[in-house]
Amino acid sequence: MRDDRYALAQQTMAYVLAGGRGSRLKEMTDIRAKPAVYFGGKTRIIDFALSNAVNSGIRRIGVATQYKAHSLIRHMQRGWSFFRAERNESLDILPASQQMDEENWYKGTADAVTQNLSIIEGYGPKYLLVLAGDHIYKQDYSFMIEQHVRSGAKVTVGCIAVPREEAKGFGVMAVDTNDKILDFVEKPADPPAMPGDPTRALASMGIYVFETEVLARILREDAQNPDSSHDFGSDIIPAIVAEGGAYAHPFSRSSVMSGLETEPYWRDVGTIDAYWQANIDLTDFKPALDIYATDWPIWTYSELVPPAKFIHNEEGRRGQAVSSMVAGGCIISGSSLDRCLLFTGVKTHSFSQLEGVVALPYVEVGRRAQLKNVVIDRGVKIPEGLVVGEDPDLDAKRFRRSEGGICLITQDMIDKLDG
C-alpha cells in the first residue's frame, strides 16, 4: 500500500503559498514574510511544509512568494538547493512579479497559482497539492492524495478540529459521514459546530489536492470572472462544494507521530503569544512536537557554527541552562537560563538571568540583564542591566507587549530607550 501511495506522490507537484505577511506577528514580520519567521531553534516556519512534501515522496515543488520575500528566497536557496533535475526533481521560487506585465501582485491565493499555470503544466504533474507555508505540523501527504484519487473528488481539503472561537480565522466546513463537504464558509463570525461537539468546528488547513488538468480549467474560468476575488477559500472551494465535488481529509488520518508525540500536532503560530508558546513548549520534558525524531526530519539550512559553550562556574556567575534548548554557536557566559530557547549564535554575558526567553539568531544579552517571557528578534543587543518582565506597565511603554504578557523586543525599540 505504501508503494501505491509513493507512486501517487511521485505524480504530484506541491505548490506552497508563501506570500503572506502575517501581520499579527507585528514587528517580527516588518522585514520578512511569515513563512520565513524563525522557529524551533534552527528552522523557519516554511521548512515544515517543504519537509512534509519531501518526506511524503514529492520531488517537484513550487513556492509562490510575495511580501518581503528576500529572506525567504535566500533561505530556500541556501537550504533547499539539493533538488536535481536529472532525478526529475525541482524547486521553483515564483515571485509575484515574474509572470505578469501590468499588475505584478497576486490578487488572491488562487491567482497565485493561475499566474504560474504554464510553469506547472510544463512539468506535467497529474496532481497538484496546494499548501499554506505558514503552519507547524508533520503530515504524510501521500495519504491525502490517495484518498483524493479513490474518492473521485474534484478537490480534497485537509481539515482539523479546532475550538469554535479559534475557527473564526479559518475556512469552516460541514461534512457528512462519507467526508463529503456539504457547506464551506470562509472566516465566519459564528462558525458552525461539528456534529456532536458544539465546542469545536472543522477548519480548513489551507491544504488542497486537485487533478492538475481539472484545477487549470477551474482557475482559467475564475480568472475571467470579474466578480471573483480569485481566492481558494472565498471562491474556488465554495463553488466546488456547491457542485458536490469537495471532500474533507481529517488531519488525524495522515498526521505523523513519532517519538514522544501522543496526538496530532498542528499550530498556527500567527500571534506573538502563540509563537512564544509553541517555541517554549519544545523545551518540555515530553514536548507535543518531537523535532528530534529522525524518521521524519525537518530539513533546513544549517549554518556552519561550533557547538554551544557554557563558561564560568562561580556562585551567581555560572553558565547554566535548565529545561532549555540552545543552538550551535551560542556562548552562555556566567548566565542562567530557565525554560529558554536560543537560536544560533546567541551570546549572554555574566550575571544575566533569562526565563521563558525565545532569542532569535545572533542576539546578545548584556551583563546583569533580567529577562522573563520575551521574544527577542534577530541580532538585537540587549543593554546591560535591562529588566523586562517585572513591570507590565513599563514594559508596554517600551516594547510590544501582547495580551498574554509576552514582550517582543526589536533593535528599534532598544535604540529608542537611549533617545
From TrEMBL:
Its EC number is 2.7.7.27. GO terms for molecular function: glucose-1-phosphate adenylyltransferase activity. The record marks Q66, W105 as: Could play a key role in the communication between the regulatory and the substrate sites. It comes from the Bacteria. It catalyses: alpha-D-glucose 1-phosphate + ATP + H(+) = ADP-alpha-D-glucose + diphosphate. It is an enzyme of class 2 (transferase). Keywords: ATP-binding, Carbohydrate metabolism, Glycogen biosynthesis, Glycogen metabolism, Nucleotide-binding, Nucleotidyltransferase, Transferase. Residues 306-409 form the Glucose-1-phosphate adenylyltransferase/Bifunctional protein GlmU-like C-terminal hexapeptide domain. Pathway: Glycan biosynthesis; glycogen biosynthesis. InterPro entries: ADP-Glc_PPase, ADP_Glu_pyroP_CS, GlgC_bac, GlmU/GlgC-like_hexapep, NTP_transferase_dom, Nucleotide-diphossugar_trans, Trimer_LpxA-like_sf. Belongs to the bacterial/plant glucose-1-phosphate adenylyltransferase family. HAMAP family: GlgC. Involved in the biosynthesis of ADP-glucose, a building block required for the elongation reactions to produce glycogen. Catalyzes the reaction between ATP and alpha-D-glucose 1-phosphate (G1P) to produce pyrophosphate and ADP-Glc. Homotetramer. This is Glucose-1-phosphate adenylyltransferase. It comes from Meridianimarinicoccus marinus. The gene is glgC.
